[in-house]
Amino acid sequence: MFKNYFKIALRNLWKNKIFSAINIIGLSLGMTVCIIIMLFVQYERNFDNMHQKNIYRLDEVQSWEGMVEPQEVALSMPPMGPSLKNDFPQVKNYTRIFPLEMAGLACNDKKVFLKNVFCTDPTFFELFDFKLIRGDRKTVLTQPNSVVLTEESAIKLFGTEDPLGKSVTTHNRRDTLHFTITGIMENIPENSHLQFNGLYSLSSIFKHGEDKEWGSNYMVTYLELSKNANVKLLESKFPAFLKKYMGNDITKEYKLFIQPLNKIHSASANITHDYHNYRKFDGTYTDIFFVIAIIVLVIACVNFINLSTARSTRRSKEVGIKKAIGVSRNQIIFQFLGESVFLSLVAMVLAIILVQLFLPFVNDLSSYHLIFSFLDKPILLLFVLLGTIFVGIISGIYPAFYLSSFKPIKVLKGVTSKGKNKSFGRNTLVVGQFASATFLIIATIFVVQQLSFIRNKDTGFNRDHVLIISGAYKNYQKLKNALEESPLIKGVTGSSQKLGNNFHQDGINFKGTGPVRNYASSCVWVDDDFISLYKIKIVAGKNFTEEGNGREYMVNESLANELLKDEPKKSYEFLIGKRFWGNEDTLSTIVGVVKDFNFNSLHSKIETLSLGNNKKGGFHDVSVKIDGAKTKEAIDFIGSTYKTIIPNFPFEYQFLDEHFEQLYEADTKVSKVVTSLAIIAIIIACLGLLGLASYSAENRIKEIGIRKVLGATITNVMSLLSKDFLKLVLLANIISWPIAWFAINKWLQNYAYRIDMSIWVFILAGFTSLLIAIIAVSSQTFKAAIINPVKNLRTE
Amino acid sequence: MSVINITDLEKIYRTEEVETVALNKISFEIKEGEFVAIMGPSGCGKSTLLNILGLLDDLDGGSFKFNDVEVSGFNERKRADMRKHNIGFVFQSFNLIDELTVFENVELPLIYTGIATAERKKMVDEVLDKIQIAHRRNHYPQQLSGGQQQRVAVARAVVNKPKLILADEPTGNLDSRNGNDVMQLLTDLNEQGTTIIMVTHSEHDSRYTHRLINMMDGQIVTQNIKV
Asked: Which helix (H) or strand (E) holds A387?
């Protein structure tokens, strides 16, 4: 019996090559998309799943006076962790991380530079289940000057030697430290939001109880809660907790909240100062991708349903005969379901091949390392197989019930029902398909527009050909002087932080005509030529001077407006020469007001900002503007100059442009994914339309013949056949427009700076889908229209 | 023994506006081994009657005994089961499955009655031999002439040795030479004991049968004319 089913299925597939190809190609494209997106979703959803404990990260909402908007930060104060553990029984444990950007470790003559070394509490290995290969989890970090290295770092430094117990030296800004290697851990898995190369015991750095001081936020704190802890209840007690340690007014400025470990990667999109969150990606997008992938698959399934029912007359005789000889309806249903499952399995095989072909390309585009291997994960095969069978059943169930419902007497007499209801169902599905496809086209256009808008928007400063070298500090001036000698270098300036982040906030004080006012704003120390190198506009006052070092401040318009709140009638000029200072009361003044510029990403509004002219202690970030025509020479020159001046640290640089690209990495990813999905959705939907059009032409071949005999032209016939489909596509547009408008509008809210939604985009998308549909349909109708009518009528 | 025994059989087609009586209280009996022709003008109800006799359609009134079993209340599954084991069909338009070869088409009913592969092969070969088409066993229907196709259809109808063959204008799509071949085949089967009921328009074909049932407007006019 199965053999018979199989034979009929295969021969049917073979006989109707076009339909089979449409079904299989469409379905396998849909499956390919689905598999790749599911791999991505799985990658995203599995972040930090290697830890068993009930871990949360402590975050803050800061809202100081003078800030445009409150901000959520991933930082906390050092004593918060220990105090929380002390005050709340449900907080079982804590560990804190103080990250070092770079550490140079030396042993004998060998020296390596490790990025991201964390200073952390001894409890680190109690909370986190990172695997320790050597050393005792309980004690590796208890002693000052202990260091745990990852395997990779240890091999860099010691090769094949046993590193345990060896000592290493490192220089930090102030002094030289000697560490003993107490443990070796496995390399950090790709799906950990914390990525680091080594751990110092916290007590090595904070020797004098600095970690007991309240007030500054520079640590990342993780808490282990008891299994059934009520998070909401705990959070509700945080205000009282803060008041207890920091006084009653503190709750105006600070709010604490905690995030479960498995949400840190995906639900931190709005959290700033979140420096150790590897490949942070907004989980909403993951969900959106998931939904779109399912939609694409459904579009492919719809093709199957539509083509099978549309072509049911072809199979009706078989059903009739089988029923006449006594085959039960269930057996026939089973046969057709089996056929669609078989077809899905064929599509699956093709999809697996396509995934293998596309994945390197996808990884390249998205810089992910998605792996699709049944050998690594046999369970994957099971999932794909079950998914495929499910798809086969879902897309086969309606055709199976429909086909098996045929009355043998009717079909064997050649009477086939051409009921309106059947094509109503089909039309609904076609409208659904094209509505989804049009939606994706519209989304793609807006997403691409918005991203190009962000890239090209005037941020208020010029970042062309600027590269950033980090960690110069006291060598800044020497480096600057040396670099400026070359004609390849157009300018060098320094700043305490680089553009493209939200700067750290600090307290500032201002004395206008009234009493001293205290605010908080984003603050950055800069060299006196910072404003001119970045071509930031000055709207009042004058630029920094060399002599003014340590005494001059400039504020941006947002801060200026804030400062002028007490003096509403005064212009910016009023602020010039007024006293303004940070933590230490010096005789500094405001010398100028700069036009607002986007020092952070365009997701955020421009915050209040003060720039202080102060080169005491050098700068962390050196901005070097180079000759754009001689990039290679310039970089070589900077590299060699750097090595002579700072031989102890490796030369690393980044173009500021690249840094800004990174800020929009998630957006770029979204746009790429949405674009590819839109294209694939359109292709699949068009395949389906092509099939239906060809079927409709074939079905109406007698009508076409008669019409042509009666004098219809080719154009008449084509418009007759195309009209119905184009109506459906139009209807699909009408449905998708408002949905797209709503969805895009919502997405655009993520940006402080966004494009206007032009109606033309909708019209363009409508025309595009219509045009593609016309091409698909007319390729089939034309064939039908040019056939000699005599031939059609004779074959009747 | 009677294969078919119907009494006061009624069939009414209803649409929104009209009610058409297709079969109006007809009664007759068909004995085992008979070869009966049903004749009458188009629309007289003979095809409707054949469909009911073939358990493809329900009746709206009266009694219908098949092999002395009352089948008028049977549901679709029971009817399918009854058909599977007792009735073979021959249609005017052959109705072979285009995707299957001659052999596979004839084999089809055996597959669904659950006969083992080897046994099936033997039975199909035997019947193909009998209709002298064994040399075409691996051909597809489109590769055969109309007469050959109808002979394959007859082979399919008889392969699992049904008690009754229902033939709906079996020669309607054939020329006279091919038509005669098919009629001869049916006659041979009848002589070997199969009961046959045939709907036909052809006086010529009706001469092969034992008895004529004449219908008009859903009623039987005569039913005992010996040919």
From this structure: helix A378-404
A483 to A451, A486, A496, A619, A635: CA distances (angstroms): 35, 6, 19, 15, 11
User: Which pLDDT does position A414 carry in this prediction?
Assistant: 59
Interchain CB distance below 8 Å, A7 and B83: no
N-terminal to C-terminal alpha carbon distance within chain A: 34
Give yes or no for residue A415 having a pLDDT over 80. no
Question: Would you state the pLDDT for residue A796?
Answer: 37
At A795 the pLDDT is 46
B84·A327 Cβ contact <8 A: yes
The pLDDT of residue A747 is 87
**Phi then psi dihedrals of residue A477, to 5 deg:** -65, -40
Residue A692 in tokens: 């239906």
**Closest chain A residue to the Cα of B80, Cα to Cα:** A326
Q: Which long-range contacts (CB under 8 A, 24 or more apart) does A457-462 make?
A: A457/A598, A457/A602, A457/A753, A459/A597, A459/A598, A459/A602, A460/A536, A460/A537, A460/A595, A460/A596, A460/A597, A460/A598, A461/A499, A461/A534, A461/A535, A461/A536, A461/A597, A461/A599, A462/A534, A462/A535
**Which residues in chain A have their CB less than 8 angstroms from residue B54's CB?**
324
Say which of B80, B96, B100 has its CB closest to residue A8. B100
A460 in helix, strand or coil?
Answer: coil
Q: Could you tell me if B111 lies within 8 Å of chain A, comparing CB atoms? A: yes
CA distance A454 to chain B (A): 60
CB proximity A327 to B under 8 Å: yes
According to DSSP, the residues that pair with B10 across neighbouring strands are B61
Residue A554: pLDDT band (50, 70, 90) is very high
Which tokens sit at A476? 């800044």
Q: What is the pLDDT of residues A160-183, one digit of tens each?
A: 888 999 999 887 666 788 999 999
Would you state the pLDDT for residue A238?
95
Minimum distance, in Å, between the CA of residue B137 and any CA atom of chain A = 16
The answer to whether the Cβ–Cβ distance between A324 and B104 falls below 8 Å is no
- Cβ–Cβ gap B100/A11 under 8 Å: yes
Tokens of A674: 């949405």
Q: What is the tens place of the pLDDT at every residue in A93-149?
A: 999 999 988 888 888 888 888 889 999 999 999 999 999 999 999 999 999 999 999
Which chain B residues are closer than 8 Å to A413 by Cβ?
47
Residue A372 is given by DSSP the state -
Residue A642, number of CB atoms within 10 A of its CB: 23
Residues 113-152 of chain B whose Cβ lies under 8 A from any Cβ of chain A: 113
A783, A695 contact by CB (below 8 A):
no
Identity of the amino acid at A743: A
Ranges of H-type helices in chain B:
46-53, 76-86, 102-112, 117-130, 146-158, 176-191, 203-206
Name the residue with tokens 């679709």: B76
- C-alpha A335/C-alpha A4 separation (Å) is 10
Out of A321, A325, A409, the one facing B57 most closely (by C-beta) is: A409
Per CB-CB distance under 8 Å, the chain A contacts of B97 are: 8, 317-318, 321
Chain B environment of A407 (Cβ under 8 Å): 56
Judged by CB atoms closer than 8 Å, whether chains meet at B80 and A409 is answered as: no
Angle between helices A17-45 and A665-699 (to 10 degrees): 160
Q: Is the pLDDT of residue A333 over 50?
A: yes
> What are the tokens at A265?
């990667």
Length of chain B, please?
227
A763/A761 Cα distance (integer angstroms)? 5
Question: Looking at residue B139, what is its pLDDT?
Answer: 93
Q: Which H/E stretch holds residue A626?
A: strand A619-626
Burial class of residue B203 in the structure, from the number of CB atoms within 10 Å of its CB (0-12 exposed, 13-18 middle, 19+ buried)? exposed
Residue keyed to tokens 């989890």? A137
pLDDT digits (tens, 9 = 90+) for B177-192: 888 988 998 999 899 8
Residue type, position A499, single letter: L
